[in-house]
Design brief:
The structure is a homotrimer. By secondary structure, chain A is α/β, with parallel strands linked by helices. Chain A has one domain: UDP-N-acetylmuramoyl-L-alanine:D-glutamate ligase, CATH 3.40.1190. Chain A contains 11 helices and 9 strands.
């Protein structure tokens, strides 16, 4: 399946509409190009519906949201829904401010999302809001480890079920949840969170995999997550061998997505299904 | 002439005002600095007229246009016209949305442009609008090849004549058209469109060459196009030798503009005049 | 003291709120991460007060200011003041437009600033406004050299005294002034101003050092300036050894902040106190 997801991405080379933050937008564009897909960035309400109509997937990222671009996210999201394009939400910083949490929750409510990708605290904010009275599930820990992975699996599976959305909760161990199964992915490197944009790039790549593989949403998201993790491993190896640092790592990470082939993707994937 | 264009750029070191997209703005700034010129980015109507007055060239790029920055483009463009500074328009995505096409056409109408630089579909949108009823010229193909180059030459020459503007239509073969002659440039590498910003960087560099060489607009645009193509060739060579990818290519491309000398520019230019 | 400043940064790993320009924002985020601190970027009035409350330092940079983000700077600045967080202002381009100069002066007036960091012309604009009739101190030269350094020392010390703010005026020789002493720092490399963002990155790093060392503002700013200068020296060395250019330099500069250790910081600092 990983192989098929990868081949479809290369063959269909989807065009992805990104309404995203200005911090990592260049990396997002270059990562999509490196993967074989193509990016368009457009965030004004005057044009987002037209632009999203030209594309086959929509990536919404609230990293530096403002009122103008939030309005555009809703317009583009509704249009993408009408056209049946997959929409992915990256709720960057959900939980950190009311504006972010509420925008993310409204997007989830009003737009049919194919997937949500975030770190554990962002996914928890999506599940519980930023309110103070949290249900029992809120006891899920702040990082997924081998010790608490069972609990995390239950949490994301529950959230996937209630939301009807693939949930990708990424960190040291990545979890990709559909209603009835969870992919556990153990690729990646601790250097990845030491640059800005690892998450945003993964969200964009995931949108591209979804657009190229609309019939297999769970596997599409899992394949994107494995691909990014493998690129991170190889980039970290090369960075350390060169005694370089995170500035170099950032460039090499994109190189490794550019150079990734399907044999490596299948062979080196550390993926488990529960 | 290439040599003279290059020397004037280095000696005059023009300051360029860029109203550009947030995707590639960092590359645009670093490319200008690498070339020996200097960038200023300013996009608010409160200051664009003052800022453009300090500069000697204006680069307008509609890559992530919005209503606020479009207003600023008109203000800055009119001021630059009054001062006799060259204004270059990069109509990114013209043809992809009404907002882009109409903004690009209005800029062409209301601002005296020294040059327009875009890919073939953007230049066609500038020539024909996004309308459905296209004239016979619209039959120009979607990519310039050795087979259809004659037709493309006629097309850009005609557009340069009717618009009074240098037209740079770039792709595998780059065409730079004045009223009465066309430069065909065969430098460059297929890796260039695999990163975001190759076009935006070329537009900024072209504005710098125009600002340093206001008397020789055609040669100035041609020299910038050759310089960027040569940098792309060398950067692709080094990237492949290092078995790297597009992340590395992006950095090395800027290195190669930084390291380019006039001897190389003249010696390795693949330029033909028709 | 340098060692203590550095250790506190690594141990306290402060979270820094940046309201900054879209040209160098990615470099700013990656530089902070490389240093061991963490960045948040948020610029909408809907959330800046909440976001700044989560952080321990605020970096205001007017590089691509607009009316929306200027409003947010005041909101965030006032909140940071209430909470006692250090606020650093980078008055990018002050003196180049009325909007920039007046915004910078208003920020200085209405927000209690822990430090201001800029180049000599920006610092002069902060001292004298953009007016035409400048006082005698305005005779300070346009670049600090060994010949005019005495005069520059007097100027920044006077400004630090009247403003109650640490003044970092950076260039070939960096000056960091408190009321009663000035640090002269002779680290750095001429390649640094050949990329965009050297100054913005230093401003962000300085904010992080201030947040980690609130009791020693002068030393904190000096330590950040030395760290950035050393990174610049090493990055330039490696860039030249590799016959690369400014594209590579930009990445390696971040590598060198990532790899900097306290022994090197102390041993290679070229710092003099007057």
């Amino acid at each position: 399946m990983l192989q098929q997801m990868f081949r479809n991405l290369k063959e269909r080379a989807p065009l992805i509409h990104n309404i995203t933050n200005y911090v990592t937008v260049n990396d997002v564009a270059n990562l999509l190009l490196a993967s074989g897909s193509s990016p368009i960035m457009a965030d004004d309400s005057m044009e987002v519906e037209e632009i999203t109509s030209l594309c086959s997937g929509l990536h919404l990222n609230i990293g530096t949201l403002n009122r103008r671009t939030v309005e555009s996210m809703f317009l583009a999201g509704k249009r993408a829904n009408e056209l049946g394009h997959p929409v992915l939400l990256d709720p960057v910083g959900a939980g950190a401010s009311k504006f972010r949490t509420e925008t993310a929750l409204r997007l989830r409510k009003e737009i049919k999302l194919a997937a949500i990708r975030g770190n554990i605290s962002e996914i928890k904010a999506m599940a519980f809001g930023s309110g103070t009275t949290r249900g029992v599930d809120a006891d899920v820990a702040d990082a997924v480890t081998e010790e608490n992975v069972e609990e995390a699996v239950r949490f994301v599976k529950g959230l996937a079920r209630t939301s009807g959305t693939v949930i990708a909760m990424t960190g040291a161990i990545d979890l990709v949840a559909e209603e009835d199964r969870v992919f556990l992915i153990r690729n990646g490197d601790p250097m990845m969170p030491r640059i800005t944009g690892s998450g945003c790039m993964l969200s964009a790549l995931t949108t591209a995999y979804l657009a190229a593989n609309p019939e297999e949403r769970g596997w599409a998201v899992a394949a994107a997550t494995v691909a990014m993790g493998l690129a991170g491993e190889r980039a970290a190896e090369k960075t350390k061998a060169a005694k370089a640092g995170t500035g170099t790592f950032r460039s090499v990470l994109i190189d490794e997505i550019y150079n990734l082939d399907e044999t490596t993707l299948v062979k080196d994937a550390k993926i488990e299904i529960r």
